[in-house]
Amino acid sequence: MPDCPTADTFFATSWCRIAYDQELARWADYALPAARKSVTDPQHEKWLRCAGTWFAGVNALPNDGDGALAGGPPLRGAALDFIANTLQLSGFAWDRAQVSVIYPHYPRQMVEESDAAFRYRVQRDAAHVDGMIPEGPARRRHLRQHHAFLLGIPLLRASADAAPFVVWEGSHKIIRARLRAFFGAIPPSDWGDVDATAAYVDARAAVFDSCRRIEVCAQPGEAYVVHRLAVHGMARWGEHASADSDGRMIAYFRPEMARPEAWLDAP
Predict the structure, then answer these.
(1) What class, spelled out in words, does domain 7-257 have in CATH?
(2) 12-28 confidence digits (pLDDT tens)
(3) What are the sequence ranges of the domains in the chain?
């Protein structure tokens, strides 16, 4: 993957890696203590999952709407320039970042996790499309969030087999086509109320059949940008994987789009 990705590369593969950037490295260095604190904060205890092998940390980083932490450097650099200038995405407020931490032996089965769900986690990396939320005992999928993109910023060094991020290249094209056909006659204001499970599962299966699975590894100062409709997940912790004693730690931003319909219609 090139260090200076083009729009054509991104829209062909659903993702790109951004090479080391000093401004982003400064932000990551400053964010690390706050991220570590979030892991031990009692109010975030609910995010410790998979029998203690994954801290999901949704919105656990206390950054502001510009992505900065109190007293720290702004969220800037090549990744942000790529999002604004190449992808032409702007006009959003940065969400509070997820602090995703993986520990050795991930994944272990959760008490409430069915055998089938655990097999899917292991065999398919818990692959999903962000925003398609499982709800109720039957975990029916509803479109509840409309992210503009996913930005992953590593906070600590880790080996390439330490539960890497996984993406299916070109998957956003299949997801867009299948869900656009499903939601086409439904007003965007009603999308979230519709059970989209069947269309979503069929689209995901088509991705597995035709798209290449890629494991993505990046280090502090680097980043990766992922298309909002891309199927992605997280691989298991490798037998010989290594990471900092704090685990494999990545901050993820998923800012919301201003218009729900842009989730399907924007490039």
Answers:
(1) mainly beta
(2) 999 999 999 999 999 99
(3) 7-257
